[in-house]
Design brief:
The protein is α+β, with helices and mostly antiparallel strands and 218 residues long. It has ten helices and ten strands. Strand 1 and strand 2 form a beta hairpin. Helix 9 packs across helix 10. It is globular.
Length: 218
Amino acid sequence: MQGKVEKDRISAKGFVSLSDKVKLMLYDNLFKHIEQKVQLTPAEKVQISSFFRFKKLRKRQFLLQEEEVCRDFAFVSQGLLKSYVLDEKGNENINLFGWEGWWIADFQSFLFQTPATMAIEAMEDCELLLLSREQYDQMLDEVPIMERYFRLVYEKSLATKDQRLVYTQTYSAEEKYLHLMENYPEWAQRIPQSLLASFLGLTPETFSRIKHKKRQSP
């Protein structure tokens, strides 16, 4: 019917063809995240959106598998993903969870276009905004405010990784659990206990024991 927005056309790879109007609506989470750090003009928003591709992932689909080259830097508009490395027994060693408002990639693979050392998998149905390495470089050249935005993102990421390194190496199992629950209480509602344990470097049994102990505490 003329005047109605045509339904999204989803390719076999999950990419969606979108009009500029629909694209700007879907990119609202991205712009909100950017404007927590820098201010954008309406023209900059239109220009920024032109560098991204929209992709849907279903639960348990992979954004990236080990040994593939990471072609895209992904902003999570909706949903939840995990990045992990498999050990020799096939256990998942969780590196990161990415949910609404987070960026996720195997960043070394993305920057240098080398085989990835980790996998990235959807834990829920996801809506992602993908930025290729070429488009990333072009956007930073053509929209200078985004260079400042990403600098601020990377500064926070580095500080968070340093903090995680400290508590991973020096905190007791109980302190790790308390730190997680105090800083990311919403994770317990969306992420299986076994994966939270892996993220903290604990066995599922230890995680469950501490959780039970805390529930019994007055």
